[in-house]
């Protein structure tokens, strides 16, 4: 079966002329207009993915479901195909429902991202909102590998929550009223302090990642038993003392219950929807 015959699947009700026009249009859209007569074994992995997408586009649907379309591609080809999906969506305006376990894929291509937790939708929002303002502790932990720390809010004023962290009183963006709350922190929210100010912590582990050292540190606060991660241009041996500066974070209500009390719950599946 040639590429053209593959793309023609589902177009049998059209006249031969209309069918040929649809095939040409679909192959041009995915950048394979010169490959109509080729066989599947003559194509690369990325080209085969484009053929599958062309077959879906040929019938001109209002919605296309893409279930793990990049799962079997290497990292470089995966990034290339993500760029293609974005280009094709922008040119056609067709709604894509892109199902993936890889949150980086979802964030890269999404108009909206839905995060599912135990079969239920925990939050649907644009990628930036999911990252900056997670609705639940589970979303906070899953998106961007955040950490959730139990804290007590003393005041909430104009979208900023005041809380005590160790011996320090801090004010951060949040939605939690006075009372028990969760503080969501990610690597970008923390920095190593170059002065004696800041929250004291002890290094318990480190790894090298993308040009920096990622330090796993345990803060000097009785209620904070979960390690935090902070980037450093230089290594620090386990046992070393450091001080942390809090750049930002997100404070959400702590409603209690089993789901909130389990920080290591099973990872959720991000369901991405690119709106047309």
From TrEMBL:
Biased composition (Basic and acidic residues): 266-276
UniProtKB keywords: ATP-binding, Nucleotide-binding, Transport
SUPFAM superfamilies per record: P-loop containing nucleoside triphosphate hydrolases
Start and end residues of each stretch annotated as Disordered: 257-276
MF annotations from Gene Ontology: ATP binding; ATP hydrolysis activity
Gene3D superfamilies assigned to the protein according to its UniProt record, in alphabetical order: P-loop containing nucleotide triphosphate hydrolases
Family matches, as InterPro entries: ABC_SmlMolc_Importer (IPR050093), ABC_transporter-like_ATP-bd (IPR003439), ABC_transporter-like_CS (IPR017871), P-loop_NTPase (IPR027417)
Protein name per UniProt: Iron(III) transport system ATP-binding protein
Organism: Cereibacter changlensis
């Amino acid at each position: 079966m040639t590429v053209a015959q593959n793309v023609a699947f589902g177009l049998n009700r059209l006249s031969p002329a209309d069918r040929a026009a649809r095939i040409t249009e679909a192959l041009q859209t995915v950048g394979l207009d010169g490959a109509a007569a080729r066989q599947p074994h003559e194509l690369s992995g990325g080209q085969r993915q484009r053929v599958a997408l062309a077959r879906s586009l040929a019938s001109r649907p209002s919605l296309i479901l893409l279930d793990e379309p990049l799962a079997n591609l290497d990292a470089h080809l995966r990034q290339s195909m993500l760029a293609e999906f974005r280009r094709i969506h922008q040119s056609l305006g067709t709604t894509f429902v892109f199902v993936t376990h890889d949150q980086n894929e979802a964030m890269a291509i999404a108009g909206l991202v839905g995060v599912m937790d135990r079969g239920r939708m925990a939050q649907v929002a644009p990628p930036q909102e999911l990252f900056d303002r997670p609705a639940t502790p589970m979303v906070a932990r899953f998106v961007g590998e955040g950490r959730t720390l139990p804290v007590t809010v003393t005041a909430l004023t104009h979208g900023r929550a005041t809380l005590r962290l160790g011996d320090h009183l801090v004010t951060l963006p949040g939605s939690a009223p006075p009372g028990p709350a969760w503080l969501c922190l990610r690597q970008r929210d923390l920095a190593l302090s170059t002065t004696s100010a800041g929250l004291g912590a002890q290094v318990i582990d480190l790894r090298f990642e993308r040009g920096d050292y990622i330090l796993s540190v345990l803060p000097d606060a009785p209620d904070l038993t979960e390690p935090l991660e902070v980037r450093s241009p230089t290594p620090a041996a386990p046992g070393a003392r450091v001080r942390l500066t809090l750049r930002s974070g997100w404070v959400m209500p702590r409603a209690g219950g089993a789901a909130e009390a389990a920080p290591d719950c099973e990872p959720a599946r991000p369901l991405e929807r690119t709106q047309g």
